[in-house]
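ok here's the first one, seq then struct tokens
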Amino acid sequence: MAQFINLTPHAIIVRLADGTDITFPPSGQVARLDEYPSRPMGNIDGVTILSRTNFGEVIGLPQFVTEGVNYIVSSLVAAQVVRLDVFSPATGPNDGALRNDKGHIVAVVALKATQNSMENYGE
């Protein structure tokens, strides 16, 4: 059976088709993108405006693939890698994420791959 290690700072809950929830607790390690400092560009009506965020390399994601081990990362991190063992919660507007009455996501119904082929994934 495949193992998922959650490299985000919060629990990820996946709601299966039968209504069962699988919770992936945070592992204590967080994969993130290195961030270069923003610089002040000026202000608008007293509100400081900073330059856009520029991201660097992925930090905190194991470099080597271990058979049977998969990682859950943020969509920002997932967008920077193409690996068979890295997934992100499916939280896009058409992904069917479940929200509470305040609009906060309480569960997802799927994980997103970092590539567009299922050829190497088991069913």
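and now the second one, same deal
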Amino acid sequence: MYQTIESIEPAVIEDYFLAPATEVWRALTDPRLIVQWWGDEASDRMTRVEHELHVGGAVFYGGRFVDGVQGGHEFSATGRTHIVLAPALLEYTREYVDGIPLAGETVIRYELDERNGATRLCVTHSGFRDARDRDVHADGWRRMMNHLDKYFQQLNPGL
């Protein structure tokens, strides 16, 4: 059976952070912070981020895979911001330059909901051409959530 882009369910990853929504939003949108926490020595590291936080704003994420992952290649992706409702909702497109590691444009949506000083972050990544690409990216978003959790643990070691 041939699968169209619409037939592939999105990757939906959710986690909770012991931080207010404004802090989680800042960690997700401030390029200086993103390159501090996004990545590790086991898979990849984000090295350059530019994200204009207004509708139609340009998006650029660039980094490098470690040796042994995707051949240790550099990667970059561009896109456009669709929705900005700080600190609750951000949606933007992503298309990898040279199709590495994925060809085609996808849509990423961050939804933040704060309750009693803790924030739920739900990442929905849609537009995949096949389930394998979706599942690989779902694993990547899980790693990203772990990196973000470590970042907040370092900021608030007593929690």
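notes on #2: Helices lie at 21-29, 31-37, 131-155. The two ends are 50 Å apart (CA to CA).
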